[in-house]
Amino acid sequence: MSKQIRIGKTDLYVNPIGLGTNAIGGHNLFPNLSEDTGRVVLRTALEEGINFWDTAFIYGPERSEELIGEILKDTGKRENVVLATKGAHKFIDGKVVLDNSPDFLKSAVESSLKRLQTDYIDLFYIHFPDEDTPKDEAVGALKELRDAGKIKAIGVSNFSFEQLIEANKDGYVDVLQSEYNLFKREAEQDLLPYTAENNISFIPYFPLASGLLGGKYNKDSTFEDGRAKSHLFQGQAFVSNLQKVEEVRAIANRKNADVADVVLAWYLTRHSIDVLIPGAKKPEQVTRNLKALEVELTMDEIAEISAIFA
Ligand code: NAP
Predict the structure, then answer these.
(1) Is 233 within a domain?
(2) Strands 5-6, 13-14: parallel, antiparallel or unpaired by DSSP?
(3) Does residue 59 carry a catalytic annotation?
(4) What is the tally of structural domains in the chain?
(5) CB of 272 shorter than 6 A to ligand 1
């Protein structure tokens, strides 16, 4: 088993390479993926000792959590996995509405517990901020849930710098999950320094830029899911992004590694990033992403990669 890393100030210890599961049962996000493939991805993660799984109510919706609950029940391996899930979305007349009110968050945790077939959640995040609820009040509700043993650690996700400061007024926030990757580095301006100073673990989502930093695409690649609309995958920006990936490939080749290995290893050199949650649509990707732990980057290489994406 690989080295277990502590997530920030929590009592959670995990393999630094976790698993993002928005593609597992996430038919609302990736319509063409079969649930059986999702089950195999989860089983592979268990076999490989990838024990930090990231899910959410809205992936599916509900289905990602349900499949995870099913696999953990069938294998009897609940205790082997540190489970992170998120809530804030609800449906009103078929429309998605965000709610961070204490009552809603408490009910969201109860429903996630049922779908995950467990009596505790290791890390529960407020998935997105709503417009109305004071953020320290929302986090206060999670503190009550933590005191009651329903959750073990408190996270917020997609919060702006100001919202994070408000959320962490009492020092209860353990984890911030935000979009961050080599193409999207705004978090370096305020969120990353704040999390480093306040002992909050920063977990970047889209670490592989939805596959673009996986190194397997070229200018003729086409996309039928949400990536078709992403600016990263369009026109001249796509071509120039692919060029940057090729520059990383030169470094990866020197180290006998893949592009994705080097990219993931680079994040783990950042202060306050303890763990990663790359997504996987195939079992081979789950296994492959562990190779990042074998890559050691020199200070020069860390700077070189940073400069490519400056
Ligand atoms: P990602 O990690 O940036 O990219 C994952 C994709 O990269 C995979 O689906 C696969 O796509 C490709 N890939 C994976 N391993 C690879 C490898 N070794 N080599 C080459 N390609 C590889 O994007 P993501 O899965 O959307 O995001 C990660 C996780 O973050 C999610 O699963 C979810 O848990 C979380 N998330 C959270 C939020 C939030 O609001 N908090 C938002 C988004 C995501 P292809 O095979 O199709 O290229």
Answers:
(1) no
(2) antiparallel
(3) yes
(4) 1
(5) no
